[in-house]
Amino acid sequence: MKKSFVRKRRQPIGPLLRVAVVLLLPIGFVPVACAEKPSWPRFLGVEFSGDAINPQSPQQLAKSPRIRWALDVGDGYGLGVFSNDRYFHFDSINGDDGRRERLRAIDRETGKAIWSVDAALRYRDFYGYESGPRSAPTLADADDDGVPDRVVTMGVGGRLTCRSIADGKELWHVDTSSKYGVVQNFFGVGGSPLVWNRQVIVMVGGSPPADANLPPGALDRVSSNGSLLVAFDLSDGTERWRGGDDLASYSSPRIASIDGKWRVLILARDAFWMLDAESGKVIAKYPHRASILESVNAMMPLVDQDQIFISECYGPGSALLDAKTDPLRVVWRDADQRRNRAMRSHWSAPVKIGDNLYGCSGRNPGDCDFRCVQFSTGQVLWTALPRRRCSVTRLGDCYLVWDERGEAIIAKANPERFDEVNRFKIEQLVASEDAKVETPVRLRPPCWAAPIVLGNELYVRGDRSVVRLDFR
Question: Within 10 Å of residue 289's Cβ, how many Cβ atoms?
Answer without folding.
Answer: 20
